[in-house]
Write a structure and sequence with these properties.
The structure holds 2 protein chains of 2 kinds.
Chain A: H1 3-15, E1 18-22, H2 29-44, E2 47-52, H3 57-62, E3 72-75, H4 77-82, E4 90-95, H5 98-109, H6 113-121, H7 123-129, H8 135-149, E5 155-159, H9 166-181, H10 183-189, H11 192-197, H12 202-212, H13 214-228, H14 231-245, E6 250-256, H15 260-275, E7 280-288, H16 296-310, H17 312-322, H18 326-358, E8 364-368, H19 377-388
Parallel strand pairs in A: 1-5, 1-6, 2-4, 2-5, 6-7, 7-8
Antiparallel strand pairs in A: 3-4
Helix pairs in contact in A: 2-19, 5-6, 8-9, 8-14, 9-14, 12-13, 16-18, 17-18
Chain B: E1 9-14, H1 20-33, E2 38-42, H2 48-53, E3 63-66, E4 69-73, H3 76-88, H4 97-109, H5 113-127, E5 133-137, H6 141-148, H7 150-157, H8 162-174, E6 180-186, H9 190-206, E7 211-219, H10 226-235, H11 238-248, H12 252-279, E8 286-290, H13 299-317
Parallel strand pairs in B: 1-5, 1-6, 2-4, 2-5, 6-7, 7-8
Antiparallel strand pairs in B: 3-4
The chains are: A alpha/beta, B alpha/beta.
Chain lengths: ~400, ~325
Amino acid sequence: MARSARRELADLLSAKEMIVVCGSGGTGKTTIAAALGAQAAAVVGGRVLVLTVDPARRLASALGLESFGNSVVQVPPQAFADAGQECRGELWVAMLDTKAGWDELIRRHAPDAALRDTVLANPLYQNITGRFVNSHDYLAMEQLYDLHSAGQYDLVVIDTPPSRNALDLLDAPGRMREFFGSRLLKWLTVPYRSRLFTVASKPFYQIADRILGSRFLQDIAEFFVLFQTMERGFVARAKEVERLLTDDATAFVVVTTLEAAPTREARFLAEELQQRRMPLGAMVLNRTLPADVRQPAAAKAAAALGQVADDAAATERLATLAGAQADAVQHVLAEVAVRFRDVAIIAGREAERRRELESLVPLTAVVPTLAADVHDLAGLLAIGRHLLGDGSR
Amino acid sequence: MTGLLDRELLFVSGKGGTGKTSIAAALADLAVRQGKRTLVCEMDAKGALAAAFEVRALSFHASEVQPGLFGMVMNTEDSLKEYLRLFIRIPLVGRIGPLARTFDFVADAAPGVKEILAIGKLCHEVRERHYDLVIVDAEASGHIVAQIDAPRAIRELVQVGMVRDQTDWMLEILGDSRRTGLVVVATPEEMPVIETIELVEKVQRTTDVDVAAVIANRVLPQWFSSTDAKVFQSLLAPEAQAALAAAAGAKVATVFQAASLAQARREVAVEYLGRLRKGVPAAVPLLLVPELFTRSGGRRVVSLLADALHDELIDAGGAS
């Protein structure tokens, strides 16, 4: 990647206070979020927090995230030294825990202890919080807000939950706010008897009652009567969380690979962010093939290798150099020559999609496909260097 | 074991990015080749299924994308309207003003409502025998259990009412391994393999739905046998590289670099395939589908994947 792109991304991370890393599933969001955070701590400095959702076990334990819960732990400076990287700042990590997050919200917004305990003990509570208004997405944004407003970190990088739809994440705070103002909630929380006589809701009520049964509706209604007592707190927060997403201090980073479906989704996401006036800071093109694979000279060399394979004298010489059988050398060279075409086809396709995305986004960063998966800080920092450089400007 | 495509309802799930939609489309393509009237339903309405079949857009109302092959996307509101029309015989459902606007909120708030409407529509298609096979491009691994287990969850939560009464026949279809199966798609990488093992375990432990197969998708080809791999390594030594560069040009280094990368990725993939096989009960067949280098999407890929699946199903034993 060009040196200037690295510098620009480093600038972005020093200018912004919150980075929301999003993109479709399987593109390496979690790893990129952690790599951005680690490298920012190392070369930009300051206190950096990475809030992650569902990291691979080995990576989680390498970062010291042994247990779930909303606790924040620091990656020891010694770990950076062991990975051969000087660290100017501090790296902190935490894992998002939806259930604990919801309980925390209830504790905060409940008007009194009795109500708080009633809600927490309600059998529908868990079921409902687990599903409605895309609670994972809302929680992720809520935690980001919380961590940022606590003022303890210079930069918070958040990895986002695997959504059915990446847009759910962006719309989650708005939906939460709307939910409390909705006719449904009002209707559900009207006393049961008078609900029968509310003309506007009558047809709806009749249908719902026939389908779901009045008992179930009543259970839900009771729960929401409790829930509504927390309306003010929830709505106020949701508004602030929503504002955070368009804040100057926030930038989105979209992660994608250059395969067909993720590219399509990344493009869609970039356009939707723009429409919502949410700042798209950069797009990370992850797991790309080395660019020189596409050079005509490389294709020529591959073809020439095929000819070398057919040249008995040449393979004999190489066999002596390599300490192998001549026919094995011949076979290997022929295979390398043929298979290289497959690699070049993919690289060509990637280049095409890359151009397409680059025309949409002001800043793109490239991370090459690696020989092995990333399981430790050293691996994250290696990716981080691809993204931000090594700090020598 | 009942052959995979001899069932009537197949859910295709897996971690995001593993190629669920392509595999669902390929299974459908294969079923149609066997003369089965087949419906494929995309659950998350991202448009990936339409892209796979190279059609403009699919809607809740199934359309024939090629002879014998039908496509649709799930929409719970349409499903509710159809349900009301068919079972409660409420005329002019569309005229009920508040319904559409309020529905989303009800469905969000009341546990399991969205899921039951979706699964209800699918089971309805199976029960009415509109198709020989219904293939569902289902929710990703994080959401699939809530989806397929919705009828049971509803039974536990809802004491009376029509929805409860409707769950019996759905459970009968879903719990019958001759009729219904779940296919989990993974790629040979760390997170997809871990999620697949966990999902299979969870489905077997908590639901009555049979895990019909695990499909390892995008398996990189083996470039070299183990003896050839050693020769390849020795050709990476400086003297050999110098000789090769002299014979074929300086960019030989790039070619070998690409080969090294492919070889390393293949070794990682083999390790994860081993873990996948070990982590999933032996009774569940594991089918391998290779990485395709020819095209990146559309009908051609669906057809190539179907070819690969066909070969694997024959290997797996009389399944096709």
